[in-house]
Design a protein that fits this description.
Strand order of the largest sheet: 14-11-12-13-25-24-23-18-21-20-19-22
Strand content: 35-45%
Distance between the termini: 83 Å
Mean pLDDT: 91
Low-confidence stretches: none
Shape: elongated
Amino acid sequence: MAAATWDGRVLASDLAYVKRVTGLSARRGVAAWLRVVTVAAAGGVGTVRHYNFDAGVVVRTQVDGGLEPTTVDMPELAAAVKAAGRGQLTLERDGDRLIVAGDDGQVSVAVFDALDDVPVMPAVDGPAVLVADAPVFATAVAAVAPAAGTDQTLPMLTGVYLDADETGAVALAATDRFRLATTELATMAPVELAAPVLVPAKVLAAAAARAAKREGPVSVHVDGALVRICAPGSDVVVRGIDAQFPRWRRLLPDAGADRMRARIAAPDLARRLKKLTDQYSVRLLVGTDSARVEAGDLDAVAAGRPATTFTVPAAAVDERATGVVAGYNPGYLASLLAAAPGEVEVTWSPTRPASTPMTIEYGGVRNLLMPVRLPGAEPETAAA
């Protein structure tokens, strides 16, 4: 009987990645043939494959030995890998069982035999609409994907929108109506994008996070309704979202628009905001060299009784911005700041800073964040 030797930690990580990409962890109530993965090893390469009509993934890693393609229940295999240990694992087919053996023991998993029912991941041979170095691709997606929504009744807000201009740059954008994030990505190859495509944000974010840890190019291909993300060590196929994305470009302030500006250290502010629960709102008070954050429920903040206060440094503050007071959802604000490596430039409308979106910009990334209306807020007037 042929056997293959996997690194236990790598195999566990690969199975977790399959779950994140395909949503398999939330699919325990579906038919058995939509919960299976196929593992195989040949020529020093081990593969884990799953497809459930909505999304599919093939993960590749270096292994020793060989294993004929064997289909098993995904949750059962994940449990077996966990039980066998995180060292070297031997996977061996023994009749109608897959034996997983490691330092902590040996577990057998039943082989799924109704192979005719298992869906086959389709080939996506369309042209590349994006080709970029893996870390560059991962950074761009990480900056945009957090702004996507999760409400499945509004599918057009749950994806990342990809579009190309005449220069070959690909624009990425995502919004949930309260946040908007966008950036541009220069490709390493000519772009062939007949029409914009909307890729499920969770799938794209999972693929990008894995690519960030690897070297090599990432390419995105479109073939009809299907999108393929080819990255070092994995291929992902997902069905694009068939919905009209909002006309996001017209929401951004014009390049020459008059804006009040300041620079704030994003990592420190994001770290502190993440400690606040979703039931809080935050009020931002801009000073000459700092920004004061007051957090609590809306009424308490408006009444000057915040539960938490802290100050972060600010620089290059427009004198008109001094004294600006605006309220924001802390989770939304933290999600937009978390991807920034350092300082960000924030801007407000000089006439309505507390009721129109704040922009957050850094390194080619542009974000919009709608404010929260604070009770008892005074009417806004034009800046002097």
